[in-house]
Amino acid sequence: MDSTKPNIFESIQGLKDDFTQLLLLALKEGLLVVSEAKNSGKHIGCYHDFPSLSFNKNGLPRLSSTFSNEPIKYRNYLTTYSEIPRTNKHKLHSFNELVAFVKSNEVLCKRFTPTTKKLKAEKKRQLMILYIHLIAEDCIERYIYQFNEFKYDEEKALVSVAPTISYIFNKNLNIDISVPILFSNFQCDSYQLADGIYIERIPELQHKARYKIQSNNTSTHQDVINSATHALVLKEYFVPNSEQMYGSNVLSQARAYPIDLINQFFGALRICSSIDTGYTQIYAVAKGWAAHCTTDLPYLEGALVKSYPSWFENYYWDTEEVPVITDEELEKTKNIFNQILSTKENSIDLALKRLNRCYIRDDEEDAVLDATIALEALLLDGNQEMTHKLAMRVGALSQLDDKIHKNPFQAFQDVKSIYAHRSAIVHGSKTPDKKRIVKITEEKSTTTHILAIDYLRMILRVLLKNKQYRKPKQIDETLLLGSTNNR
């Protein structure tokens, strides 16, 4: 490909002003037509399957389709696909002028023409005209819902066409990325974690818009998708615009999003809080552009993944209370998250991935293996006396954590218990459950999988705060051999 050849967006920039003026004329004429039809009492119809939002007693949103009081679909006055008499948009002068202008420029025409080889030339021509009409209808619909009026105003019209113009002419499309945080409530409306990274309360209109983000590849219960009040928000991203309108669905693919960064946040949250959480929906919020208009809803595109405990689907959305992330936990999460972002050790990255897997595994034994693999990546520098050395190092590091509430000997013993269960799992013992329960006190016991996760969280907290101990040898020399002056 010739890198000196201008791309399609560079080639059409000189047409932007003329196109905008013609689109404004189509908006003006369309508003008049819609207003006259509305005043005449003609049937128009409404949006079908429009999202409805309410909130459960526990504060979680409830999204569903409404079949009453749906908003009016004003663009229906311009459709010809109905037995009810409507205005034929093909006979509107401004619409025809807009089509003629696109056809007069070969490069701009490509922007509106589908490239699939299966379509015949006549079908492509029909679709090109349809796409041009659709953007005019979008602007009409947006104007009415933005300003709640049908009288044309030039300044308001410029505001209404701006998202469409940006979608047609911009090489890059600006977005914010939102990841709803499942079954977790926060005491704040907005909290900055790092540059361009926030936790924010999801606005009501955004809730409605995200209801339509579905997937054919991932089966997630709709009530699980709904169950988030706040989202992780990554700001100031962009995606390359497709050269053909409606020609790309990149934002409907999970691989388009910074999954590693998202998982680092959830790892940090799990290190600092014991709540059960996860995510399933990732979506892009269009900033200053829109490929389509639905009333006053923001334009979103997104994907579904399955990164949450499967038991969430067992009616967990009916829980009486949603766990709250306190401001103190949030501050600790911020600190840990920024330490994760600055770390360069592969062992930390591997351990975080394993920690996240621990929380979404269906099988406790798998979670035990994940946790021990992570501990070994963090604390071992060879295979010699693996269990004993790892247990000694965990015990030594437990002195540096204020949450584990275990002395070094207790930590040492706990790790020995964890590895006894691990050994039973990996060596195919017929009775691994005998090693599953660990007695904490005479009255209290826990499972090895919970214990393993707790120790992994503790080790990550300590190593992220104390960089010098990311080399296991330093744990031995400084903490185990008595040279504690460097602590």
In words, what does this structure look like?
This protein is of the alpha+beta class and 487 residues long. It folds into 3 domains: 8-48 and 65-169, no CATH class; 170-337, no CATH class; 343-487, no CATH class. Helix content is 46%, strand content 14%. The protein has helices spanning 8-12, 16-40, 93-103, 106-112, 121-147, 154-169, 204-210, 222-226, 259-272, 327-342, 346-360, 364-379, 386-397, 408-426, 448-465, 472-480, and strands at residues 50-55, 61-66, 172-180, 185-186, 190-194, 197-201, 230-240, 279-286, 300-307, 324-325, 437-439, 445-447. It has a 6-stranded antiparallel sheet, with helices on both faces. A two-stranded antiparallel sheet has the order 1-2. The chain has a two-stranded parallel ribbon with strand order 4-10. The protein is elongated, with a radius of gyration of 29 Å.
Q: How much beta, percentage-wise?
A: 5-15%
Mean pLDDT: 89
Q: Could you list the spans in which at least 5 consecutive residues all have pLDDT below 50?
A: none
The largest sheet, given as strand count, sense and whether it forms a barrel, is: 6 strands, antiparallel
Output the number of helix runs.
16
Give, in order, the helices and strands: HHEEHHHHEEEEHHEHEEEHHHHHEEHH
What is the number of domains? Answer: 3
Which structural class do you get from the secondary structure elements?
A: alpha+beta
The coarse overall form would be elongated
Q: How would you write the strand order of the largest sheet?
A: 5-6-7-3-8-9
Q: Cα-atom Rg, whole angstroms?
A: 29 Å
